[in-house]
Amino acid sequence: MAARLMNAQAQVCKLGKHVVDPMARQFHASCYTASKVALSKFDSDVYLPYDKLNKRLEVVRSRLNRPLTLSEKVLYSHLDDPANQDIVRGTSYLRLRPDRVAMQDATAQMALLQFISSGLKKVAVPSTVHCDHLIEAQVGGPKDLARAKDLNREVYDFLASTCAKYGLGFWKPGSGIIHQIILENYAFPGLLMIGTDSHTPNGGGLGGLCIGVGGADAVDVMADIPWELKCPKVIGVNLSGKISGWTSPKDVILKVADILTVKGGTGAIIEYHGKGVDSISCTGMATICNMGAEIGATTSLFPFNQRMADYLKSTGRGGIAAEAQKFQSKILSADKNCEYDELIEINLDTLEPHVNGPFTPDLAHPISKLGENSKKNGYPLDIKVGLIGSCTNSSYEDMGRCASIAKDAMSHGIKSKIPFNVTPGSEQIRATIERDGISEVFDKFGGTVLANACGPCIGQWDRQDVKKGDKNTIVTSYNRNFTGRNDANPATHCFVTSPEMVTALSIAGRLDFNPLTDELTGADGKKFKLKAPFGDELPAKGFDPGQDTYTAPPPSGENVKVVVDPKSQRLQLLEPFDKWSGQDLTDMTVLIKVKGKCTTDHISAAGPWLKYRGHLDNISNNMFIGATNSENNEMNKIKNQRTGKWGNVPEVARDYKANNIKWVAVGDENYGEGSSREHAALEPRHLGGRAIIVKSFARIHETNLKKQGLLPLTFANAADYDKIQPTSKISLLNLNSLAPGKPVDCEIKNGDKVERIKLNHTLNELQIGWFKAGSALNRMKELAN
């Protein structure tokens, strides 16, 4: 099977416009021998690919004959066939060779189940799994971790054994959040990495193009199939001035979110440049890139500089820093006079601290306006909980700056007025802040240090201080604040800001406090203002690695057994989806017409549902339960068009499937924004969906739908959304002539009235093959036979 799949991969390359030169594939393999600086301490036999990247880039330079942005240099130097690849920003589909794959435990389950189905014996590129999503915050780090290990033992054992069998590195629960682990160990300037988490772009803080994808994309790369990406546009952000005082790197991306909104970066890479870059630490740059996911960007990155070199040296990778410096001008910085598709100017000297929210990360409030805006909009002014950390803001510098604020307050006899939760990004950060006394400061301040995991940021929070439905406010240094995301309470008003601002607001306990101008009252009754935060960028004593939480794969996994119990409620082997029949999809029922924002959280909720991420049938019971039904403005209540009875969405979908009724879902703008979770595509496919028709898609989700054999279609005229009613019958016609760039004919029946509209799509020839085969994985197997 594996040998046939390798032949299939060669055929896959021929599905595009050009046939790949066999020498190009040999060239790809040479990346592992061109340099003698190891990719990481865990990949001692895999070397930095700078020589190969530079040679490929020269081929592209000679063809394009123009100055290149940094994004283009890194991306195009990873082309599978640089001599023949069509390269047009916003149009071409690039076939790429990423350097590595990273997966978190919630998405890795489905990705590895798909890889097992492929029949291959070993991953083709360095790949890792990180256990960070399944640990629920309850009382504190050690107890929460012990509880998670017990509750999730079956899943952890599956992931560990699958990693050992197929050659992946395994980071145990408690090791930390995937993106912090990547930054500390694997990211390097010029890297192209894909990760099964939407905040994978965090690695852009070390000058890498790190892109969030669904599990099926990860399977392609692990199977040595070129990875496909629509050639991104490039949005430049020129930073002038210097970060100082209460302004932090987080405020840069909060401002960019204000400018671009949650969909303004879709289909583009955000490239930061300018003199202001050098005033931002490496981990600060990672913060900015991390939250670029909230504006829909493909990824974000910064040019290689001394701050990155310092971080590499501090984390034991001085050899990588030295090698990167050799290629700084050739690969790791933009050419002079390069052109951006859009240019944003931000002056760091005048940038005010921001607090964004609630319910969306692009609703920006400068701190000077937060109180006024909160009162005007009726936001609860009293803050119930402050939370710092997460993959976005849990660096040593972040923790040190927050500790300086806490110590300042305690020197006046006061501390946090509200519960204050701290999430270290990794075991290394936890051990280092404990050694350096920062954890002790937080403890005296009234804080609780949680496990090295995602925790409340993704809804893994057993919150007890408010009842569901109670209107309340929390402030976090997280990246995402959709309705109900953190605590499953739709009435919680979550505001995202810098960890420094969270700390200050936690001392005051109110949204209408501005630490730049307002005074607090000390225990002695005297008024005082908080001093501007300060903290070391890197620990003076170096990082303390803490406990060893990494397991390397054995030289051979041949004798390792991976067992999935057929009775398991957590794991389920996958059955292939059915092929397209070759007939038009006619008289399909509308399962749900979604009103307003519909993120992947609305389509496939996280929180308590994370435990079922490896069991497709069980997790499908959360499909669309958070989406608002346009018919009644309610969540998880739709009318069964077969029976006339009202029911929850998964229940009605299962009834349709059992009665062979094909269905479509209809949505609004930026459908599927947020997480990279492919379950939001797998579940509709599993329960009988055939097409998703919306005004516009978020990038990752659209690709995930294609991978699972669903048709992602957009209204050619957005106003046609109003023509579809819950009782409508939808037909997609002339599918035998489905072709790239050719709209799909759609017939809408409302009683005796029949209307025809056009639906657009972005499917290319390869992706149309996925639809016809039933899924990308089915197509891979077809080519293998």
From TrEMBL:
One Pfam family per UniProt: Aconitase_C
Cofactor binding, note field: Binds 1 [4Fe-4S] cluster per subunit.
Enzyme class per UniProt: lyase
Residue ranges of domain Aconitase/3-isopropylmalate dehydratase large subunit alpha/beta/alpha in the record: 72-509
Entry EC no(s): 4.2.1.3
Keywords on record: Iron, Iron-sulfur, Lyase, Metal-binding, Mitochondrion, Transit peptide, Tricarboxylic acid cycle
Annotated compartments: Mitochondrion
NCBIfam families: aconitase_mito, PRK07229.1
Task performed by this protein: Catalyzes the isomerization of citrate to isocitrate via cis-aconitate.
Protein name: Aconitate hydratase, mitochondrial
Gene: LOC108610717
